[in-house]
Each structure stands twice: as structure tokens, then as C-alpha cells.
Amino acid sequence: MKAKLLCLRLLSLVWLWPASLPIGSPLPGRRRHKDVYLGEHVKNKHGGRIDYKMKKSDSTKSLLIKSEQLLRIEDHDFAMRPGFGGTAIPVGIDVQVESIDSISEVNMDFTMTLYLRHYWKDERLAFPSSNNKSRTFDARLVKKIWVPDVFFVHSKRSFIHDTTMENIMLRVYPDGNILYSVRVTVTALCSMDFSRFPLDTQNCSLELESYAYNENDLMLYWKNGNDSLRTDEILLSQFFIEEFNPSNGLAFYSSTGWYNRLYINFILRRHIFFFMLQTYFPTMLMVMLSWVSFWIDRRAVPARVSLGITTVLTMSTIITGVSASMPQVSYVKAVDIYLWASFLFVFLSVIEYAAVNYFTTIEEMKKLKRGKLPASFNATQAMAFDGCFHDNEIDIPSFPEISSASVEQQVDPCNSSEPPPTEGTRLRRKHSVRKNINFIMSNSYMIDSYSRILFPLAYLLFNIIYWSMYS
After folding, report:
1. pTM of the entire structure?
2. Which pLDDT score is estimated for 95?
């Protein structure tokens, strides 16, 4: 009996011993064969073993390997374009403009953010699919296949957005058709014409072209014609977008040949209200302010001189501020014509008072010489600082009475030596230019009277001509 119990205990130990081993640990007899299998079949590029746990956790790497196997990337040379040696491969372009970020008159450029989409067919990437569904990839696969080398002509700066990953999308269809989309911001040159600034309309364009492939290898075209260019609602601070349209053409380079080029044309019309508030209205007010001196007494020298100098300096400040915000062009702009014409009106108002003051001084000096003013009269004191001067306050000496005979001799036309006018002739008073000047000099107050009418009429006529030409 003891021998039988001992045999049963030994059998039960042998039967329970494999179950007592840790889970996942190989049996002693199989460990050597497992090591041999790993050493022969799973080697990395440095000759060592690959950790199965690390490989299993890297799901992205394993998925990418499966995608490459599905698209047979290792079987083809994607450094060559599709259909190399044959006809040019057509590449369709579709653009959606997200925003126009800025337009700079000083640098003559604009900044635009857009979605640039390419469409072409590469039969090397065709794959079998039971449900005929496409596969979408990111930028990691784009670096391993052929994509069109489209660039922006006349661009100063451009970049692909990379937050949080590169904004690149690749969609491959089972028949080999490919959609490649990228979100890019580009700053490009725009040759602006400021001859009508700020009443101008600018025509800018963004140009796309292949850098390496000419028209014999790659043909760029708009995917959906005029509907290939789509825009969101774009609002600009200084411009109104009148038109957005696509076009195409050819560009020739002497060393490489003809290239297909696509254009994104847009017309910008400037809002005038900002410049009316900042430039035109202040200029008009300064010109009108200079006319106030025509209603101030001509002997109030400090008041009229200070008013004239103030308006001249203010106009100089406005002109300098406008010129600082504009590019240094070699032609005259519309705003320059208006500012300098207004500056001329302000300057002439100062010159007008200088003439009035000069003629008034000459007039008083003549009266002093003829004895109509007392010898003790001081012309400097007559220029009262309060603007008040009264001729009747001056003591004019009495003069001898003129006899009636002398008066008749002076006014009797019959005593004239000139022959009387014959029948059929018209009496015409002849006034030479010198007499007119002498008359104005002796009546200098009339210059202010005429200036009150002539200056506003001339400025009104200038505004009518200016706004009819440029608006």
C-alpha cells in the first residue's frame, strides 16, 4: 500500500509541475529553439534582435509599412514623374482663398492664405479595393512619392502651416487618381500704380508655375474652369474686392523653354472715406481758415501774419505725413495734386496780405508827402494792434479855397484841346495798366474785398475739376 501511495504522489507532482511555471515563460526544452528562430528570421539593420513588445506598441510604424506595401512604393522609382518619356502629365489646380492678410503700399506686396489642391493620376499608386474607397495619408507619405513642384512666381515669402502637424493631405484612389492639398501662406509682389491714389484701383495677381517641368513634361490647368477659384467672405480695412477670377498662360525662359502658368487675378478698389477724414477734410479746413484773414483789418499785422503762418505750417505737416506713408515713386499722385494745390491757396493768402500791407504803406507815405497827413503822423503807430484805425481821427490841415474860375477851367470839356467826337463814334474811357495799378495801390482795401470772392470761387472750381477727373 505504501508503494502505491508513493507512486500516486509522484505522478501528481509530474502532472502539476508545468502549471506551476510563470505565465509567458517558455519551457526549458523550447527556449533554445525560440532563440534560434529569432536569430535567423528577425534581424534589424544593425544585426541585433527586435523587441516584439516594442514593435507591437508602435502601431503607426506598422500601419505605414502596410500602406507602403499596399501602394507598392518600394517597387517604383518615384524620382521620375508618372509616364516619363511620354506625353505631358496633366495636373489640375483648385484654389480656395481663406484670407488676404495684408496689403502694403510701401512694400508693394500682399499676403494671402489659401488652400492649394492638386489633381493628377499616377498608376503606380493604384491598389486593389473591394469597396472602391480612397485612402487618406498625411505628410509622412508625401515625402516618398512624386508630387508636382508648383511654386509661386514673384513670391517674397511663403510657408506651409505646421500647427499642430504639417497641413498636408494626400488622398489616393484605387484607380491611381490623387488629390494633394496643402495650406500655405504666401507674400507676393504686386506692381501697384499710385497715379490716382487714393482714388485708385489696383490689379494684383498670384501666379503658379512648375519649377522643373516645362510644358513637354507637365501641363497645369484649372480643374473646374472659372469655378476652380473659390473664396470665403473676405473683408479688408482699406479695400473692396471687386473681382476674383482665374486665368492661364505661358511663360518663356530662354534657357529652359515654355512653362504653363496659372493666374489668380483680383481687383481691389480703395475705400476713400478714411482718406477723406484724415487728409481731404483737414486740408479743406486749413484753406478756408486762411480766408479768415481777408475779413481782418489790414493794419492788424500780428493777427493776419500769425494766421497765415499757422495755416502754412499745418499744410506742410499734412503733406509730410501723407508722403511718409507712401512709397517713394517718381510720378505725381492724385493726393499730391490736391495737397499742393491747397498749399498754394494758403500760400497765396499770405502773399495777398503782404501785397495789401505794402500798398497800404505806400499809400500813407504818399499822403504824408502831399501834406494830407500832418508832419507828426507816425505810420507805425497807425498799424494798431487791435485792428482799429480811423482816418477821421487824423488832423488834416486846411487848404486854400479854389476859385470858381479855376474849377470851371478844370472841368469844362470845351476848353480841351482834343477835337470833339464826330457822329458815329463811341466814347471809350482809356485806362492804361499803370493807371489800374496805381488805382489799386491807392485803394489797397479793395484787394481784400476782391479776395473774399475770388479765392473761394477759384478753390471751388479746382475741387469740381479734381473730383470730376479722379472720382
Report:
1. 0.67
2. 96
